Amino acid sequence: MAEPDDQAPSAPGSSPPQGQSPAFWREGRAALRLVFQSPLVLPIACVLTFVASLQFLLEGPGLNSLDILSARQTRLWHMLVAFEPTLWLASLLSVFGDFKRNGAVWPGPGRERLAVVFYAVFLFTMALLPTIVPLLARPSFLPANVDALTEVPHLQAKMFVLNCLGSVVSVMLACGMLSVHIQLVGRPLRNPSSAEETATESLEREVLRYQQLRAQLKRCLGFAGTIISVSILTVSAFNNVLTQAAPPQPDVLPSMAAMSFGIYFTGFLAIVYLPASKTLSEVGEALAAQLVRRSPGARATWKQWSEEQQAVRTYLGLEGSALQELQQGLALLSPFVASLSALILGAAR
């Protein structure tokens, strides 16, 4: 006679051990989807890009450049070069995230897109001029053993690829700022899109679009200024590497040349940003005039009307704080500040 426990049926709610593995993988896939749908994906992608850039640069012991206790100039230069693609990725993820969430902040009609393309060609040429002119004037300004001095195989080919990618990303960010100007000039204020939409609903939609365009302008300015500043510091660090490794070698980027680069690209950003900022302020003033009553009503005092006007202007970003103005000013002047840093480091060398 069989014992009571022999071949006892399993409990209805229990599952065999073999069924635990699929459940585990399902939970794992769900966890990965949660990670990639959250803001956590940005730091993860940036870290992976940084490590991959080091590997691309050095083709072998790339992680050795993370030895930050080393006093060698090449370590700092390697890390700066690897940090540039990380910035490019972060800026592209931010820009395309805006495009995915708010498609209305990008040019819609064909004439606006064509205008952005014309500006892109012009800006790409202007961004490459400081690189092309020195190459034409001094085609062989690097030593023959530059690969050994910098510990980077095929240095010139890799630098050409990275410079082209950096120029493309910078031009894309500049076009992001220009698209704000083009949209506001082409479509300053929209009329109701349908008969069912009231004037109030149309105005609310315009206010939302205005705030999205303002956020896009600030974000593109911040990323573009940071990318250009890091590029100037990277070239200055490269100059220090060659000077330390081969003292008779003339400077690749002398201190005054770094200052010239900073002034040039500060003007480059100013030409792109300031007209867009001026147009944005004008459209904001027009929106504020529509949102605020021209004069106080029968039951409103002048003080209440003034407070309402102040609140609307603050809500639209027309009354920025001193900290916000300082942040925008630093973002615009960041290439010049980076060139000053390169000048100070070159003088202290």
Give a verbal description of the structure.
The chain has a domain at 107-348. 73% of the residues lie in helices and 0% in strands. It has 10 helices and no strands. The chain has helices at 20-36, 41-58, 73-101, 110-137, 146-150, 155-186, 199-245, 255-291, 302-315, 322-348. The longest helix is centred in the middle third of the chain and has 47 residues, at 199-245.
Produce a short descriptive summary.
The protein is mostly helical and 349 residues long.
Keywords:
membrane; transmembrane helix; mainly alpha; disordered N terminus; 349 residues; transmembrane; 10 helices; globular
Annotation, overall tally of beta strands? 0
* Biggest beta sheet attributes: none
Average pLDDT for all residues: 75
The value of Rg in angstroms is 28 Å
Structure classification = mainly alpha
Transmembrane segments: 34-56, 76-96, 116-137, 157-180, 220-241, 253-274
Keywords: Membrane, Transmembrane, Transmembrane helix
Biased composition (Low complexity): 7-21
Region (Disordered): 1-21
